[in-house]
Amino acid sequence: IPFLYSPFLGISLVFMLVYVWSREFPNANINIYGLVTLKAFYLPWAMLALDVIFGSPIVPDLLGIVAGHLFYFLTVLHPLATGKNILKTPLWVNKIVARYRIGAPALVRNAAAASPAEPERNTGVFRGRAYRLSD
Q1: 23-47 burial string, b = 16+ CB within 10 Å, else e?
Q2: Inside any domain, residue 123
Q3: Helices 10-24 and 59-72, packing angle to 10 deg
Q4: Is residue 1 part of a domain?
Q5: pTM, rounded to two decimals
Q6: Residue 68: which residues within 8 A CB-CB, separation 6 or more?
Q7: Alpha-carbon Rg of the chain, whole angstroms?
Q8: In the 8-state DSSP scheme, what is residue 119?
Q9: Nearest partner of 47 among 69, 32, 67, judged by Cα
Q10: Which SUPFAM superfamilies match (predicted)?
């Protein structure tokens, strides 16, 4: 599409990632240049406004926001509403991750079978500590 042409799509990728992150953590507080604090939900639009103020082209920013919205819709909102996941991770990526053990290790399936005297190690999940306020 000629009017959407952009020779370098790095800016679009950044806007896409910022958009998806802002949808995942909408209530996080963001400080822009130490002057303005706003919720993360508004961060892509604030960055777009700053780019317009500074005279940058608006098309790559909008492409990133559209791509981020499409990705978020197809991976989060649509599966929640219908139960159908349209945009699945390709099987070859899952195989590479499993083969080279990239990312967090799989969870221990049978926690009751693990020795109670020996704590779980390297399960890939931070369990943390919980303290009741009434104790």
Answers
A1: beeeeeebeeeeeeeeebeebbebb
A2: no
A3: 40
A4: no
A5: 0.67
A6: 15, 16, 17, 18, 19, 20, 23, 44
A7: 21
A8: -
A9: 32
A10: Rhomboid-like (SSF144091)
What are 9's two structure tokens? 């799509």
The answer to whether residue 34 sits within a structural domain is yes
Which tokens sit at 88? 């699945």
Residue numbers of the domain that contains 60 = 7-85
Instruction: Give the three-class secondary structure for 44.
Output: helix
| Amino acid letter for position 52 | V
Nearest CA among 34, 10, 38, 11 for reference residue 22: 38
Cα dihedral 16, 18, 20, 21 in deg (nearest 10):
160
- Band (pLDDT 50/70/90 cuts) for residue 124 is low
Number of structural domains the chain divides into:
1
Our measurement of the distance from residue 110's CA atom to the centroid of its chain's CA atoms, rounded to an integer in Å, reads 30
Taking Cα atoms as reference points, which of 75, 57, 83, 87 lies closest to residue 19? 75
Kindly state whether residue 33 falls inside one of the protein's structural domains. Answer: yes
Q: pLDDT tens-digit profile of 56-115?
A: 999 999 999 999 999 999 999 999 999 888 888 889 998 998 888 877 665 555 555 555
CB distance 63 to 12 below 8 Å: yes
